[in-house]
Amino acid sequence: MEHLAVERPSAALAVVRLMGAGRVNLMSYAMLTELWRTAHDLQADDALRVVVVTGSTNAFSAGMNLRQQEVSAFEQFSVEQRLHIHAFGARACKAWEELDAVTVAAIEGHCIGGGIAFATALDFRVASQAATFSAPELRHGMNMSWQSLPRLVSLVGPARARRLVMLAESIGAQDALDWGLVDSVCAPGEAFDAARQLAERLAAMPPAPLRMTKHAVNQAAGPLNHAVSYMDLEQYALCQSTDAHRASIDAFLRRG
Asked: Contact at 8 Å (CB) between 60 and 17?
C-alpha cells in the first residue's frame, strides 16, 4: 500500500497510519480505496480486538486533496463515473464503522473535512490539545457527504452539528471534548500514546461482550443513519454542477 501503513504490535492490536499528501496529510481516492480494502482484511482476522488509527505529527488529515483530477477537473467524468468514484468515501467509513474490532483515532493537528468524516466513523477519538476540527465543505460549494452528518449529529447534537457544518466553524480540542466529538484530550504530541493506552484497556476486556456492545451501541445511536443520508452522494454530484463549487475550486487552485 502507498497511502497507509499497517503494523501489528500484537495479535490483538493493529495500528493503521494515514500517509497522505503534504504536511497536512491530505486524503485521496486511492487512500480511500486502501482504507476500504484494509477494513475488509482486518475484519477477516478473528484475533484482532482493537485498531488504532493515526496520521502524521501535523495532522490526522486535513481532508480530501482538492487538486486531485477527480475534484479539480470533475467535468471530464460522466455522472455515472463520478458517482462510482465518490462512493468510496462512504464505503470506507461504513467498512470501518462495521469492524468487529474496536477502533480508536489518535488525532494530532488538523482534523478537517474528510478527516473529521472518517474519524467520526471510528469508536473512540483521542485528541491532543493542539488538534483542530472543522467541516468547511459548504465554503467550497459542497455538501457534507460520506454519510457523516448522522454520525456528527449523534455525537454533538443537531445545534452543534449546524455550527460545524452550516457555519463551517473551527473548534479546538477542549471544545471538541466538551461537545462530545472526542473522548479525551492529552498534551501535544501524546495522542498516539494515549490512544495506545486506551487500546490496551479495551483489548483486556472479554472479547465477545466487547464486540457485541460495540455493535449494540452503534445500532442504538444510529438505526436510521443510512435511511437519512444515503442520498448525500447524489447531492454531492449535484453540488458539483453549481457555479459556487466551480468558483471555489478555481480560487483554491489559483492559490498555488
From this structure: no
Contact yes or no for 239/81 (Cβ under 8 A): no
| Distance separating alpha carbons of residues 193 and 195, to the nearest angstrom | 5
Query: Please, which residues have CB within 8 angstroms of residue 73's CB and are 6 or more apart in sequence?
Result: none
Average pLDDT of the chain is: 97
Cα four-point dihedral sign 207, 211, 216, 218? positive
Q: Are 219 and 150 in contact (CB under 8 A)?
A: no
The pTM of this model reads: 0.97
| Sign, Cα dihedral of 62, 68, 74, 80 | negative
The β-bridge relationship of strands 59-61 and 110-112 is: parallel
- Direct distance between the N- and C-terminal alpha carbons of the chain, in angstroms, rounded to an integer: 28
Mean pLDDT value across residues 62-85: 95
DSSP alpha helix (H) spans, the chain? 29-43, 69-72, 79-97, 114-119, 149-156, 158-165, 173-179, 191-203, 207-221, 225-229, 232-240, 243-254
Fold of 4-192+223-254: 2-enoyl-CoA Hydratase; Chain A, domain 1 (3.90.226)
CA distance 227 to 245: 26
Write down the pLDDT at residue 256. 65
Half-sphere exposure of 148 (CA within 13 A, CB side): 30
pLDDT in tens, 119-164: 999 999 999 999 999 999 999 999 999 999 999 999 999 999 999 9
